[in-house]
Amino acid sequence: MKIKESPSRKVFMVLNYIFLGILAVSCLLPLINLFAISFSARSMVDANAVSFWPKGFNTAAYEYILSNKQFFQSFAITVLRVVFGWAINLALIILVAYPLSKDNPRIFRSRKYYTWFFLVPMVFNGGLIPTYLVVSKMHMVNSFWALILPEALPMFCVLIMMNFFRGIPKAIEEAALVDGANWFVTMWKIYLPLSKASLATVSLFLIVNHWNAWFDGLIYMNLPEKYPLMTYLQSVVLKFDITKITSEQLMLNPHLVDVTGRGIKGALILLCTVPILMIYPFLQKYFVAGVVMGSVKE
């Protein structure tokens, strides 16, 4: 049966859609402007004549970036970081969140001590210098693992998974244990399949965090060829100056004649943003369904 909406409800929905539409457009306009600049001619960009549509269309900025070996090296490092970082983070999150979700002291007698052990560093961390000294003493400076292991267990995601595990009816777990399943089988066969929404949410947080991270690459990597993609982007945005290009560089890279620094920066920002935007739609459906997706109705 269709429920008839009141006039005030209809007005609210219309205003809500208008507000959200304006908010969405305001988020897209800067990207559209970067897109237009990256495909525009140098004379048009220098004259500030480009707004939201390319003028003097050319692809010189993208040709220059894609001819740069450093871009592909940094891109490969970031892809590997996302894959390995996501796998390690998610495995540790599950292995920590599942036992901490057991409130019954007869099941996990030392739970409160482990909870404090994990939560205190979340609030009071050692800081940048002690963290760098630990990474240095572990001989991980200029190592790929310096980008992953220092943040291997994000406690915020542990709390999300722990609270979700608590919401699953205990009767299901008890039935599995009575049938002979051990704790690991119960977690693997019952809890994880029922936690698809939470796992997707946590996975998206982890993937975006690894993809966008730049500061750890800046402090742990001394060699530019070992920079992750966002650290490379940061160095280009802050340090790249088209006016300092020599005639020898122009001979080696003729694409530089037709581009500006703004065009190269805009093209690079778009190339760094598009991959993560392509991943989001595959996980968005779990946000729409919410944390009740796959759960059991009592």
UniProtKB/TrEMBL annotation:
Intracellular or extracellular location(s): Cell membrane
Xref: Gene3D superfamilies: MetI-like
Record membrane topology: Multi-pass membrane protein
Annotated GO biological process: transmembrane transport
Residue ranges of the TM segments: 12-37, 75-101, 113-132, 144-165, 197-215, 263-283
Alphabetized InterPro entries for the sequence: MetI-like, MetI-like_sf
Keywords: Cell membrane, Membrane, Transmembrane, Transmembrane helix, Transport
Gene Ontology CC terms: plasma membrane
Domain ABC transmembrane type-1 stretches: 71-283
PANTHER family (UniProt xref): ABC TRANSPORTER PERMEASE PROTEIN MG189-RELATED-RELATED, POLYGALACTURONAN_RHAMNOGALACTURONAN TRANSPORT SYSTEM PERMEASE PROTEIN YTCP
Name of protein: L-arabinose transport system permease protein AraQ
The species this protein was found in: Blautia producta
Source taxonomy: Bacteria, Bacillati, Bacillota, Clostridia, Lachnospirales
Record gene name: araQ_4
